[in-house]
Amino acid sequence: MKRLFLLRHAKAGFGQDDKSRPLAQQGKKDAFRLGQCLAEKNLLPDHILCSAALRAKETFESLSDGAKLSFPVSFLNELYLASEDYMTQLLHKLTPSVQSPMIIAHNPGLAIMLHSLALTPPHDAPIIKFPPCMVSILDFDIKNWSELHHHSGYILQNILPAALNQTEN
């Protein structure tokens, strides 16, 4: 059994160019809370593949701070606005020892990937849009990432930032 976390970077602010946009304050809070939530539920990745865009890196940092853990991470320029096909190829190359990777990247690639991999794709409007700082967690009945194929993942959970904000009220 393998588990995949798909995380869209948190809410971004403004920057000189798209790739250098930092997180907005709300984005930092959301990613921190998501890290706390994942740690409390013991739903944690064992390796992170992260876009090299500033907002993705800062999402990783806030997530790690919230979880109070240090995750092995690979920052990849190629994940900036990567296609679903490219991200799937990255997963196919992972060693079998990686059980639960997380991809921190961008739309539309992540939304397309969720719909491509899920056995039963979601129909809820907020999930279809894959908003900033949403994570989708999918389980696959495979032993090696090279066995990953379309419509084979069971959605364990979709966590939206709005749900994280409700828990503190």
SSE arrangement, N to C: EHEHEHEHHEEH
Shape: globular
| Total count of strands | 6
**Structural class per helix/strand content?**
alpha/beta
Instruction: Indicate the percent of residues in helices.
Output: 25-40%
CA radius of gyration: 15 Å
- How would you state the average pLDDT, rounded? 93
State the major sheet.
6 strands, mixed
CATH class: Alpha Beta
Strand content: 15-25%
Widest sheet, order of strands: 3-2-4-1-5-6
Number of helices: 6
When the domains are counted, the total is 1
Low-confidence stretches: none
Distance between the termini: 36 Å
CATH architecture: 3-Layer(aba) Sandwich
CATH topology: Rossmann fold
CATH level-four homologous superfamily name: Phosphoglycerate mutase-like
Structure description:
The longest helix is centred in the first third of the chain and has 16 residues, at 25-40. 36% of the residues lie in helices and 20% in strands. The chain is of the alpha/beta class and 169 residues long. Helix 1 (25-40) crosses helix 2. The chain has a 6-stranded mixed sheet with strand order 3-2-4-1-5-6, sandwiched between helices. The chain has helices spanning 25-40, 54-67, 84-92, 109-117, 125-129, 161-167; strands at residues 2-8, 47-51, 73-76, 101-105, 135-140, 153-159. Strand 2, helix 2 and strand 3 form a beta-alpha-beta unit. The chain has one domain: Phosphoglycerate mutase-like (Rossmann fold, 3-Layer(aba) Sandwich). The termini are far apart.
